[in-house]
Design brief:
Layout (H helix, E strand, L loop, with lengths): L40 E7 L5 H13 L8 E3 L6 E9 L18 H14 L8 E10 L4 E7 L2 H18 L12 E3 L1 E3 L5 H15 L5 E4 L3 E7 L2 E7 L10
Antiparallel strand pairs: 1-3, 1-9, 2-7, 4-5, 4-8, 5-6, 9-10
Length: 249
C-alpha cells in the first residue's frame, strides 16, 4: 500500500475530552470505548515476524490477556501490527519543533512529509548488517498501555542502534524529546482508563507470570519505512538497506 491509498488529506483533528479524565491517547488514537480513531503518520520500525518464537509466545499471552476481568481497560493492538520502533517519524496530529521536519513548513500536508522522507530514506545508508539481536527485559504496564520492554543484547548492539537513531534524526531533520533515552519496546495494548492500585496489582501479577515463558533473545530484520492511517496497520514501503559495498578480505 502506498501513501496515495491512505486518507492523508490534511491535519487530523483530535477529540477533546475533559482534562485528566482519560489517558493521553484517548481522543487521538482511540475513543473511550476502544474504537479506533484516525492517527496518520510515518515511522521506521521492525515488525515482529509471525514465525518468531517471541511472536508465538506473545500470542498465547495476548489471548489470555483478552480473557481477563481487566481486559475492558484496554484497546488491543492486532498481532500483525506488533513492532519495535527504531525511529519515531511523524504524526499528522503533532506539529511542533522536533516532532515535524525542520526543512518542511509546519502546515505542509502529511503526504508532502511522506514524499520527503521517502526520497531521503531511499538514499539513506543503513550502514550495518542485519539482524538486530535483542533481549526481553519484561512487561511494562505503563499509564499509556502494556508494552514489552526490550534492549540490545550487548553494548555493541546498543551502540549500533543508538547511532542509527542519531543518523536518522539528522537525515530526517526531526528529534523528538527524549531522543537519547528512548525506551525500546513492543506495544501490545493502549489504556482506556486510568488504573487504580488494585488494577495495577492484578495486571502486574498476570504479566509477571508470563515473563518466564518468553524467549530471552530474539532477532529483528532490516528497519522498514512505514506509513499508517491508524494504530492497527503499519504499511511497509521499503526496507532500509546498506549502500556501502563490503570489501572482501
Amino acid at each position: 500500500m502506498g501513501y496515495e491509498d491512505l486518507d492523508l488529506g490534511g491535519m487530523s483533528p483530535t477529540i477533546e475530552y475533559p482534562c485528566g479524565k482519560y489517558p493521553r491517547w484517548v481522543g487521538q488514537k482511540f475513543d473511550p470505548d476502544g474504537n479506533l480513531l484516525p492517527f496518520p503518520g510515518n515511522t521506521v520500525i521492525c515488525h515482529l515476524q509471525s514465525d518468531a518464537l517471541l511472536y508465538r509466545a506473545l500470542l498465547e499471552m495476548y489471548d489470555e490477556l483478552r480473557k481477563q476481568e481487566f481486559s475492558h481497560l484496554y484497546a488491543f493492538l492486532p498481532p500483525t501490527s506488533w513492532h519495535m520502533t527504531v525511529f519515531e517519524g511523524v504524526s499528522d496530529h503533532i506539529r511542533k519543533p522536533g516532532f515535524w521536519p525542520a526543512d518542511l513548513p509546519i502546515d505542509a500536508p502529511l503526504r508532502d512529509c511522506i514524499a520527503l522522507f521517502r526520497r531521503k530514506l531511499q538514499e539513506f545508508d543503513l550502514g550495518s548488517e542485519q539482524p538486530f539481536r535483542m533481549t526481553v527485559k519484561g512487561f511494562e504496564a505503563l499509564e499509556d498501555g502494556i508494552a514489552l520492554k526490550v534492549r540490545p543484547v550487548d553494548a555493541a548492539e546498543e551502540s549500533r542502534l543508538r547511532q542509527l537513531r542519531d543518523r536518522l534524526s539528522g537525515c530526517l531533520q526531526t528529534r523528538h524529546p527524549g531522543h537519547e533515552t528512548y525506551s525500546l519496546h513492543l506495544s501490545i495494548t493502549y489504556t482506556l482508563r486510568f488504573l487504580d492500585e488494585q488494577d495495577h496489582e492484578k495486571i502486574s501479577t498476570f504479566l509477571d507470570g508470563w515473563c518466564a515463558k518468553l524467549p530471552e533473545v530474539f532477532e529483528l530484520g532490516a528497519p522498514e519505512f512505514c506509513i499508517f492511517d491508524d494504530m492497527f496497520a503499519f504499511h511497509q514501503q521499503f526496507c532500509l538497506t546498506t549502500k556501502t559495498p563490503r570489501i572482501a578480505i
